[in-house]
Backbone:
């Protein structure tokens, strides 16, 4: 059995509002791991305590699966159906509904590229959920602009701080700046990222208990979020 809310939370963290629709679910030792993404952005979502037999499941249409789950409630029972060694269906049941979701052949889904951590991170900041909420609000206020700069500078006391600047690169555009403190090793960094992707990640992890952001001067951001049973990890490459 698994809570509907937990399963929906896991799906939202890789689906990212439509960015990753086709994925493989890997179940091993009662844990679920999902890799998703494409060049320039990848993610991994891991759920402990997922009581299904060891398997690899092809999810060809996450949007359709989400719509099926939306009509359920409470605790869900999940079971698999297969022909020979190929899993073909996933059955989902609550107290009222019995749903069947058709699984895809995992061979047609391909592989997801994964990134390795650089040797050093120039920025390492713990994110409070209040920070996540503030960053989402900043992006929403300039929703028609998908540009965001992550910069480093110094405050009046000479301490290094990190700034998230939402807005166009032109000097006459509207801008919003949000500051965060943390372990910041290098001053005068200024690296552009896609704020739409950044917002989708933050929105999907508002229910987590803690987060962390790391930035490499080579142009890579790593975001990690944790709760009791779920961990989600994201890498985003800089805008060109």
Residues:
């Amino acid at each position: 059995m698994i809570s509907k809310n937990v399963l929906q939370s896991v799906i939202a963290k890789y689906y990212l509002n439509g960015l990753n629709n086709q994925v493989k679910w890997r179940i091993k030792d009662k844990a679920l791991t999902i890799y998703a993404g494409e060049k320039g952005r990848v993610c991994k979502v891991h759920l402990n305590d997922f009581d299904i037999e060891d398997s690899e499941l092809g999810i060809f249409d996450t949007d359709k699966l989400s719509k099926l789950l939306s009509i359920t409630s409470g605790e869900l029972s999940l079971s698999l159906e297969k022909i020979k060694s190929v899993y073909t269906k996933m059955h989902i049941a609550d107290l009222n509904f019995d749903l069947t979701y058709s699984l895809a052949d995992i061979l047609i889904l391909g592989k997801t590229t994964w990134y390795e951590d650089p040797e050093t991170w120039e920025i390492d900041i713990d994110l409070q959920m209040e920070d996540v909420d503030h960053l989402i609000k900043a992006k929403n206020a300039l929703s028609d602009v998908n540009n965001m700069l992550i910069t480093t500078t110094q405050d009046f006391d000479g301490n290094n701080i990190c700034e998230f600047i939402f807005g166009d690169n032109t000097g006459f555009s509207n801008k919003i700046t949000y500051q965060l403190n943390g372990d910041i090793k290098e001053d005068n960094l200024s690296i552009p990222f896609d704020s739409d992707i950044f917002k989708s990640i933050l929105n999907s992890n508002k229910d987590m208990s803690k987060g962390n952001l790391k930035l490499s001067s080579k142009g890579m951001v790593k975001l990690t979020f944790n709760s009791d049973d779920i961990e989600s990890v994201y890498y985003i490459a800089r805008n060109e």
The chain is about 20% helix and 45% strand. The two ends are 45 Å apart (CA to CA). The chain has two domains: 2-108, 123-237. The helical segments are 4-15, 62-70, 129-141, 195-204.
